[in-house]
Design goal:
Oligomer: heterotrimer
CATH topology of the largest domain in chain B: D-Maltodextrin-Binding Protein, domain 2
CATH topology of chain C: Rossmann fold
Structural class of chain B: alpha/beta
Number of helices of chain B: 12
Strand content of chain B: 15-25%
Largest sheet of chain B: 6 strands, mixed
Radius of gyration of chain C: 18 Å
Number of domains of chain C: 1
Strand order of the largest sheet of chain C: 4-5-6-3-7-8
Chains: A mainly alpha (484), B alpha/beta (284), C alpha/beta (218)
CATH architecture of chain C: 3-Layer(aba) Sandwich
Strand content of chain C: 25-35%
Largest sheet of chain C: 6 strands, mixed
CATH architecture of the largest domain in chain B: 3-Layer(aba) Sandwich
Structural class of chain C: alpha/beta
Mean pLDDT of chain C: 85
Mean pLDDT of chain B: 88
Shape of chain B: globular
Helix content of chain B: 40-55%
Chain lengths: 484, 284, 218
C-alpha cells in the first residue's frame, strides 16, 4: 500500500505533460507502415539476422557456463556481490564499455551479453539448486568426489528446471542482442533503429515482424540436442576473438577510465586533488544526483503501472476467464507487448505525447505488465477450481484475485530491479535518467565520467534489489518468479 | 599461462598483419542512415581505385562510435563533424584534418520553430524562445548541439536546461525537423544542409515549421586521417588520400555527404570549434 | 569397546527439548531397535549416532533421500560413488556398464525391483521407492546401518523380505521401527524412547509386544 503512496508522490513530482500538437500525421504514417511492411529495403538483412542469433546464442551459452560455475560458489558473500554488480549494469552499458576496449568486434557483443547474463544465471541457478529437495543430500556416502556428487545427486532433479530457465533466457538474449544493434553492433537492431529514425515505418514493421516470428518460433527450432550445433555455427558466423588489439585494451584500462584531473597533470600535488574534487562534484552533484532522482521516480511509477496492467492483462490468457480463441488472441497480444523492445515502444509514445516521462512510463508498464500478466495467468490456471465457483467479475474479485495476490506481489517486486535497469535504455532516448548521463559521457568521449556514473547506477540497482528482497521476505514471498 | 599468452600474442600479431593492408574509413551518421552501406561502398570503391589498396567502409551508429573507431585504429580515415573531428584529433596524436566540404568553410545552424509559437524569422537571436520546449540534434553534433548551445548560453547567460521548459536530443537532424513539425518540441536547431535537402525532397510542411534564425558561419565537417598511415601504407600515402578526396568530382559520390566538392583543410581551421567546445564545457 | 557412545546428550530445537540427557552405548554386532511414538526423538538420536561414524555408516533416512529423476540403477549406484574416480562415475551416468549393472541387478532381484531397474524413481510407488533406498543401503556395503522407519510404506510380508536383506548384509544395525512386532522379531536389543528420554533398554528376547504399550500411551 505504501508503495502506491510513493508512486502517487512520484507522479506529482514526475514530469508527465502531454505537449504534442499534431501527432496524428506521424502516427498515421506509423499505422500505414504497420500494415504495409517492406521486407526488401534493409541491406544485408540476412546477415543481420544471423548475427542477431549468433550473438544471442554465444552470449547466452557463455553466460550460462560462467553463471553455472559462479553458482557453485554463490554462497560466498564476495561472489554474491560480484554477481549482483555485474548484472546491475545493463547490457547496453557493457556494450558501450567493450566498444571502447575491443571496438566493433564480435567479442564486444558477446561479452556485453555474457557478463550480465552470467550474473543473472549465477543467482537463479543457485536459487534453483537451493530450492530443490534437500532430502537426498545425505544419499551419497562420505568421501564422494565433488563432481560425482554433483552430477548424481544435486543436478538430476533440477535439470529440467535449469533447462527451461536457460531457454527462457535465450529469448531474452535475442531481445538483448537486437538492442545491442542500437549502439552499432551489426544485429537487426542496427537497421531497426536507423529505419525508425528515418521514419521508414514500412521497414520498421518488417523488421519487427521478423523479430516476433523469430521469438514465437523458438520452441520449434530450439532443441536442446541441437545446442552444440547452434553454438558451433554461431562461432563460425561470428569469429569471436578476431580483430582485437591489445593496445586499445591497455589504453582503455590505463588511460581512458582514469579520472581526467589525474590524467592531465605530470605530477600530483594539492591542486590536483582540488581539481579532482571539482571534477567529482560535477559528476556526482550535477549528473548523478538528478539522474538518481529521475531514475527512481520513473521506476516507481512504472512499477505500480506494471502492477495495474498485470491485473488487467492476466485474465486475457487464463482459461478461467476466456475461451480458447480469445485466449489465443490475448496470448499473442502479451507476446507482442513483451517482445517489442521498450525503446521502440517509448519512441512511438514520444511521437504521440511529446517529450516527458510519460512515454517511458507507459512503455515500461506495458512491457512488464505483459510479462507478469503472462506468468500470473499461468499461475491462475493452476489454482484448483470449485465446481460452484462464481463467474466473470465476481470470480475475478472474490476468488482468483485474492488467491494470486501474494504471487502477484512477489513477481512485481522481483521486476522492480529489472525495471530500474531498463530505465537505462530509455535514458538514451532523452529522458534524464542515469542512463542519459552515461550515454552523454560516452558521446563526449569522457569514459572516466561514464565509469563513475555506471558504478553509481550499479550500486543503486543493488540497493533496490536488496530492498525488494527485504520486502519479499517480510511478506514471506521468498520464491522468485524465475524459478516457479 | 605463459603458453597461452604467447599464443595470444602470435594470434594478435597475425590478425594485425592480416588487416594492415585494408584501409578503413567511416562517416558520422548525421542524416539518412538507411542504405549507408550502399552509399559509402561506392566511395570505398573510388578510393580503392585511386589509392591502389583495398578500402573498406564500416558503418557506425553514433558520433561517439565514429570517434572511438578512429581512436582504436579500426578506421584510419573518417568523415567527422567539427566537434567530433576535434575530439578525435585531440586523442590521436599526429592525426590531421586533410579536407573539408566546400560548404564547411562557412557552415550554418538553423533554428526552427513550430508555427503554433508564432515566431518569425529575424536577424537577431530569437530571445522569445525562452521557456519553450527545445530539441537539439545528436548530443555530439556540431551544428545540432555545440553551436546552438553556444549561442543560447551567450544570449541568456544560462544553461539550456535553465532557459527552456524542456530540452531534448532528437538524435539526428532529420528527426529534429520531424519532432518540431509534429509539435513534440516547439523549437529546434539543425544543420542547414539537411534542412535544405529535406525541403527539396518535399519532406517539410512549411505551414507547420519554419526557420526563425540563422547562426553566423563556422567551420564544420572534415576528413581526418590518422598520423601513422604512412608507416603502414607507405610513404606519401597521406598525400595520396588527400589528393583523391580533393579530386573527387563524381556528383553521385559527392551526394553521399552531400557536398559540392572537397577543398583542403588544416587542424588550425578548427581552432574556433575547440574554443567554443571548451566554453560550453563539451571539451575538457 | 563400544562402537557408539553417547553421554548425557541433550538436543534442543527452536527452544524445545527433543532429547533430554540421553546416555547410550552400542557395541559392534548389536541389532538395536528404537521404538517410541513419532516425535519422541528417534530421528534425532539416529542423527547423533551418524555423526560419530560418518564414514562407515550406510544411512537409510526416513525421507529416503532418492534422486527422483534418476533410475533405480543409478540411485543404487550412488552408494558407491566414493569408490570410483569421477570420470568413471560420469561414464556410468551416461551409459551404465555391465560390471556395475550385474551386482545391482542382483540386489534389485532380491528386493523384487528387477523389472524397474531403469525406471526413474519418481515414477515408482511408495513401497518401490522404499525398496530402492534399501537397495542403495545394501549396495554401500559398510559395516553399520542406521535406518529410520525403512518399511513404513509396505505390508508386513514385504517388510520381512526387506528386513531380511538388511540384516543379512550388516553386522551392526540400529533402526527406528514403529511396528513393535517387527522390532521384536529382528533385533536383539530394544530401546524405548518417550518425550526425549530413554525409558526402556533391554534385550528383546522374552519380551512381548504388550510390554511396550507404555511407550505409546500417556
Amino acid at each position: 500500500m505504501s508503495f502506491i503512496g510513493i508512486a502517487v508522490f512520484c507522479v506529482l513530482v514526475g514530469d508527465l505533460e502531454i505537449s504534442t500538437l499534431d501527432p496524428w500525421q506521424e502516427m498515421g504514417r506509423m499505422a500505414l507502415g504497420a500494415v504495409s511492411p517492406d521486407f526488401f529495403t534493409t541491406e544485408n538483412l540476412g546477415r543481420a539476422f544471423l548475427n542477431t542469433l549468433a550473438f544471442a546464442i554465444i552470449g547466452v551459452a557463455l553466460g550460462s557456463a560462467l553463471g553455472f560455475a559462479l553458482s557453485m560458489v554463490f554462497h560466498n558473500p564476495g561472489v554474491r556481490f560480484f554477481c549482483a554488480f555485474i548484472r546491475a549494469i545493463h547490457e547496453l552499458f557493457w556494450g558501450l564499455i567493450f566498444l571502447q576496449a575491443f571496438g566493433l568486434t564480435p567479442l564486444t557483443g558477446v561479452l556485453a551479453l555474457a557478463i550480465p547474463y552470467a550474473g543473472i544465471f549465477a543467482k537463479v541457478y543457485s536459487e534453483i539448486l537451493d530450492e530443490s529437495d534437500q532430502a537426498h543430500l545425505k544419499a551419497a556416502p562420505e568421501g564422494t568426489g565433488f563432481i560425482s556428487f554433483f552430477l548424481f545427486v544435486r543436478i538430476p532433479d533440477v535439470w529440467a528446471h535449469i533447462k527451461t530457465y536457460t531457454l527462457y533466457r535465450l529469448e531474452c538474449g535475442l531481445r538483448s542482442s537486437t538492442v545491442l544493434g542500437f549502439i552499432g553492433l551489426p544485429t537487426i537492431g542496427f537497421h531497426l533503429e536507423s529505419a525508425f529514425k528515418q521514419g521508414n515505418y514500412e521497414e520498421v514493421a518488417a523488421l519487427l515482424y521478423l523479430f516476433f516470428a523469430l521469438i514465437a518460433s523458438m520452441r520449434w527450432w530450439m532443441r536442446p540436442k541441437l545446442v552444440p550445433f547452434y553454438v558451433a555455427t554461431a562461432l563460425f558466423v561470428l569469429p569471436v576473438g578476431a580483430d582485437i588489439s591489445m593496445v586499445n585494451v591497455v589504453r582503455f584500462l590505463t588511460e581512458d577510465i582514469v579520472p581526467g584531473p589525474l590524467r592531465w597533470v605530470e605530477s600530483y600535488n594539492v591542486d590536483t586533488f582540488y581539481i579532482f574534487g571539482q571534477w567529482l562534484r560535477v559528476v556526482v552533484v550535477e549528473q548523478a544526483l538528478p539522474g538518481i532522482v529521475n531514475t527512481v521516480v520513473l521506476t516507481m511509477i512504472a512499477l505500480v503501472g506494471a502492477g495495474g496492467l498485470t491485473l488487467i492483462f492476466f485474465p486475457l490468457v487464463s482459461a478461467k476467464f476466456f475461451g480458447r480463441w480469445p485466449r489465443k488472441a490475448g496470448h499473442m497480444f502479451l507476446v507482442i507487448m513483451r517482445s517489442t523492445p521498450e525503446y521502440i515502444m517509448a519512441y512511438v509514445f514520444l511521437q504521440l505525447w511529446g517529450p516527458s516521462m510519460l512515454p517511458a512510463i507507459v512503455a515500461l508498464s506495458l512491457h512488464n505488465g505483459a510479462i507478469i500478466g503472462h506468468l500470473i495467468g499461468h499461475h491462475a490456471d493452476q489454482l484448483p477450481a470449485r465446481a460452484d465457483a462464481p463467474k466473470g467479475l465476481n470470480l475475478y474479485a472474490y476468488d482468483v484475485l485474492p488467491r494470486i495476490y501474494r504471487q502477484f506481489l512477489a513477481f512485481l517486486f522481483y521486476r522492480w530491479e529489472v525495471i530500474m535497469r531498463e530505465t537505462a535504455i530509455l535514458g538514451i532516448l532523452g529522458i534524464h535518467t542515469l542512463g542519459f548521463y552515461v550515454d552523454s559521457a560516452f558521446v563526449d568521449i569522457r569514459f572516466d565520467r561514464a565509469l563513475v556514473l555506471i558504478v553509481i547506477t550499479a550500486l543503486l540497482n543493488i540497493s533496490v534489489d536488496k530492498i525488494s528482497r527485504t520486502v519479499r521476505t517480510r511478506l514471506r514471498l521468498s520464491r522468485s518468479p524465475d524459478i516457479v | 599461462m605463459k603458453k597461452i599468452l604467447s599464443f595470444l600474442f602470435v594470434f594478435l600479431a597475425l590478425t594485425s598483419v592480416a588487416h594492415a593492408e585494408t584501409f578503413v574509413f567511416t562517416a558520422i551518421p548525421d542524416e539518412d542512415e538507411s542504405r549507408l552501406r550502399s552509399r559509402f561502398d561506392k566511395v570505398a570503391t573510388y578510393l580503392s581505385q585511386e589509392l591502389g589498396v583495398e578500402v573498406k567502409y564500416i558503418p557506425v551508429k553514433s558520433y561517439g562510435a565514429a570517434v572511438t573507431a578512429f581512436l582504436n585504429n579500426q578506421v584510419q580515415l573518417a568523415w567527422f563533424g567539427g566537434l567530433s573531428g576535434v575530439r578525435a584529433r585531440l586523442r590521436v596524436p599526429g592525426s590531421e584534418a586533410i579536407a573539408q566540404g566546400f560548404e564547411d568553410q562557412a557552415f550554418v545552424t538553423y533554428f526552427i520553430a513550430n508555427s503554433s509559437t508564432g515566431l518569425k524569422e529575424g536577424k537577431d537571436f530569437p530571445g522569445k524562445i525562452q521557456d519553450k520546449t527545445f530539441t537539439f540534434g545528436s548530443k555530439g553534433s556540431t551544428s545540432g548541439r555545440l553551436m546552438p548551445e553556444f549561442y543560447i548560453r551567450e544570449h541568456f547567460k544560462k544553461s539550456p536546461e535553465d532557459v527552456f521548459k524542456r530540452v531534448g536530443f532528437s538524435g539526428d537532424h532529420s528527426k529534429t525537423i520531424q519532432l518540431v513539425q509534429s509539435g513534440a518540441y516547439q523549437v529546434g536547431a539543425l544543420n542547414f544542409k539537411v534542412w535544405e535537402n529535406e525541403i527539396k525532397a518535399g519532406k517539410v510542411d512549411p505551414s507547420k515549421v519554419s526557420i526563425i534564425w540563422k547562426t553566423p558561419p563556422y567551420p564544420d565537417y572534415q576528413w581526418s586521417i590518422r598520423g601513422d598511415v604512412n608507416t603502414i601504407f607507405g610513404a606519401g600515402f597521406k598525400d595520396k588520400v588527400t589528393r583523391s578526396l580533393l579530386e573527387m568530382k563524381d556528383p553521385d559520390l559527392l551526394a553521399s555527404f552531400p557536398r559540392r566538392s572537397f577543398i583542403p583543410a588544416r587542424n588550425s581551421d578548427y581552432q574556433p570549434i575547440v574554443d567554443v567546445g571548451k566554453k560550453v564545457g563539451l571539451l575538457d | 569397546m563400544a562402537l557408539f557412545d553417547i553421554q548425557d546428550a541433550s538436543v534442543q530445537y527452536n527452544g524445545h527439548a527433543v532429547l533430554n540427557g540421553v546416555s547410550l552405548s552400542i557395541r559392534q554386532g548389536e541389532h538395536v531397535a528404537l521404538v517410541g511414538q513419532s516425535g519422541a526423538g528417534k530421528t534425532t538420536l539416529l542423527n547423533l549416532l551418524y555423526e560419530q561414524h560418518k564414514k562407515e555408516i550406510a544411512l537409510l533416512p526416513q525421507d529416503l533421500g532418492l534422486v527422483q529423476t534418476l533410475s533405480v540403477f543409478h540411485n543404487i549406484y550412488i552408494a558407491r560413488l566414493n569408490r570410483h574416480p569421477a570420470w568413471y562415475n560420469v561414464l556410468n551416468l551416461a551409459h551404465p556398464m555391465q560390471r556395475e549393472v550385474a551386482p545391482i541387478r542382483e540386489i534389485a532381484r532380491r528386493l523384487r525391483l528387477e523389472d524397474k531397474l531403469f525406471t526413474p524413481v519418481g515414477e515408482l510407488s511408495g513401497g518401490q521407492r522404499q525398496r530402492t533406498a534399501v537397495g542403495r543401503a545394501i549396495h554401500q556395503g559398510s559395516s553399520i546401518l542406521l535406518g529410520d522407519e525403512p518399511v513404513s510404506a509396505v505390508d508386513e510380508k514385504q517388510a520381512r523380505v526387506i528386513l531380511d536383506c538388511i540384516y543379512e548384509g550388516y553386522e551392526t544395525v540400529v533402526m527406528a521401527l514403529h511396528d513393535v512386532t517387527l522390532a521384536l522379531a529382528y533385533s536383539d536389543r530394544i530401546i524405548g524412547i518417550k518425550d526425549g528420554r530413554i525409558v526402556l533398554d533391554q534385550p528383546s528376547s522374552g519380551m512381548e509386544p504388550s510390554d511396550l504399550d507404555d511407550l505409546y500411551h500417556h
